[in-house]
Amino acid sequence: MKRRALFSVYKKEGIDEFARFLSQMDYEVLSTGGTYQHLKGKGVPVTEVSEATGFPEVLDGRVKTLHPVVHAGILAMRDKKEHLKEIEEKNIAPIDFVVVNLYPFEETIQNQKSSLEEIIEQIDIGGVALIRAAAKNYKDVVVLVNNQDFEFVRKEMSEKGSVSLETKMLLAAKAFSHTAYYDGLISSFFNQKTNQKFPVEHSIPLKLESHLRYGENPHQEARLYKSGVDHNISLLSSEILWGKEMSYNNYLDADACLDILREFVSNDPFCVVIKHTNPCGAALGNTILDAFERAKAGDPVSAYGGIVGFNKTVDAATAAKMNETFFDIVLAPDYDEAALALLKGKKNLRILKLKGEDWSKQGKNYRRIENGFLLGDWDNIGFYPEKWEAAAKRSATESEARDLKFAWKIAQYVKSNAIVYVKNQQVFGAGAGQMSRVDSARIAAIKAQEFGFDLKGAVMASDAFFPFRDTVDNAAKLGITAIIQPGGSVRDADSIQAADENNMAMVFTGVRHFKH
After folding, report:
1. Has 513 been annotated as catalytic?
2. Which of 174, 276, 353, 364 is catalytic?
3. Do domains 3-193 and 243-353 have the same CATH topology?
4. How far, in Å, CA of 341 to CA of 51, rounded?
5. CATH class, 3-193 region
6. Catalytic residue (choose from 136, 226, 231, 353)
7. Which fold has domain 388-508?
8. Predicted confidence (pLDDT) per residue in 220-250, tens digit
9. CA nearest to 174, candidates 207, 129, 198
10. What pTM was estimated for this model as a whole?
11. Is residue 276 annotated as part of the catalytic site, yes or no?
12. Which tens digit of pLDDT belongs to each residue from 285-332?
């Protein structure tokens, strides 16, 4: 009985050449509707599946290959005499090649104009069944889900006369990964539609985006994967206009930079400088150049080798000033022509253009632990100063209130324990990642003093409450006049008393911003 190869594909690049090759290798090529017409039009000898099954396509093509003649031909184990006898008695020919790629569900949900009915129709049923059947019986069946694999399979067959078991198993692994990704996209879509934030069973659709030179350290391997479909501004939707490939740490730092930029989209010109995912400097300015100079001044030492982010188009004057310092990456919504030419003069600088209009942060936050994941909401509760509570006797002045709002936005993105000093909407010092909040405050003050900032009249933000009044007392000695913090400590009264004794304003936000 003649061997068979089944083709049922949406993406048709290269299939006629591969089908013709198999035909020349004495395989009968079977195919479904659109693929059949394509191969026939290319002059490839091809038999329609409905002719082989004796059953026509039905339900507008929803059922084409779901038939025993097809699936028995795939699933029959060639080393089992009973299987071979049974399919022979039923006049079913073995199918040794299954070439399938699936309906464009991913592309359809990427198009925001797609209706629910259009999306549902792109959920492939028969194709997934064919892939799984062939991959399950990989010892006897070659399954191909990626057209790019045609060439190396053809080469192996030409050189060896057959496809090795090792190659078959590799292709089966690719096939199961492909259907898992596809089903992950579908389940994510339905979970989103039904507001299932934390389903009992959950899959994360990931697709390889790029190879990274190494991971967090040179001895660690790493790759970049894209998770599902997004329509918002992200690093993966941005365009690298200049520079070498991004590293693992580059992506982490740049993502931290982008998160802060989201907070200042509609503000005056804003700049932030990131080092090891923490903002070492940030400021609003009258111009984008002014914002950059003020942000860099917050910690010019740490800024070296850091990442710079802007909320507005970068101009030539800012680019020229940037070129005086070594930076790894610059992110911005756009660059004028002269600025881009100047920045490209730095061969080691990566220039990223943020693309899109939706600055929201979508999806969920996944954190890997051994044998599991922590899944939670992003810390993007929003910014609602109208809900804040004036805790101390003295209210904040207009300028203090403006600085408190700025400081609170920045503190949200500083590693805990976080303390941030701000004056005139410019970071004067930041203390990050310390085991003690007192130590974070001390480090932030050291930074401020080291770079010539006078903390008298500055404000302080703390990402969590003060367990004791000591941080407040120390802030008063520095000249801090207003504090913003979540509140909620059993000793809040002590901190409020310290503020009152030092004639400081204190605002409770009711929201904690731990960042680990």
Report:
1. no
2. 276
3. no
4. 63
5. alpha beta
6. 136
7. Cytidine Deaminase; domain 2 (3.40.140)
8. 999 999 987 677 899 999 999 999 999 999 9
9. 207
10. 0.88
11. yes
12. 999 999 999 999 999 999 999 999 999 999 999 999 999 999 999 999
